[in-house]
Amino acid sequence: MVATTVHLLRHGEVHNPAGVLYGRLPGYHLSERGHAMARAVADALAGEPGTTGGSARPRHDVVAVIASPLQRAQETATPIAAAFGLDVGVDERLIEAANHFQGKTFGVGDGSLRHPEHWPYLRNPFKPSWGEPYREQVDRMLAAVADARRQARGHEAVLVSHQLPVWVTRLALENRRLWHDPRRRQCSLASLTSLRYEDDRLVGVGYSEPAAALLPGASHVAGA
User: Fold this and answer.
1) H or E stretch including 205?
2) Does pTM top 0.85 for this prediction?
3) Cystine design at 63: which of 88, 155, 175, 215 (Cβ 3.0–4.6 Å)?
4) Where is the signal peptide (predicted)?
5) Of 141, 106, 118, nearest in space to 18 by CA
6) Is residue 108's pLDDT more than 50?
């Protein structure tokens, strides 16, 4: 059997002082902490101790790094590709989900929910009615995974995408319903959802957080 792993990586923290739903809007780049998260993932995959400490780890066998065309995903992919001497590929299928509320703040107070013209977009959370259907996200993501798996056959590939597409893809692969409570997603910033294949058969789904020490509130939780 030929073992292949495709890692779905959520991008790092984004500089977004206005707190809008930036979606597919251009110009949203990683924050300083987001860049540190990307470097932490690169160190973890390359087997380096990393800036957050710890001993050297096994080096992963990454032969392809492919990212969503959005700036935050490209910036997250860059140090990983550099660690393995690779170029960053671009795949439109890894892009963020389309969302009616893109560019707006989302909330009841001063957010878009206080305006009745937006209410019809909330009528069906199972699809969802406010954006790209979950099933369409899964289909495009799995097509990208299939191509990456063929490209990296016998090795590992890293696909840099966004929280919702990564999460619904995992739900689909685990035969769970696609509609869900966003607060329960297991897909933190700069996390890896790792799909393990033997030949063409999915044999396992793993999850890890190489940049956990850099997540907002991590130092407080750790008591540092």
Assistant:
1) strand 201-208
2) yes
3) 155
4) none
5) 106
6) no
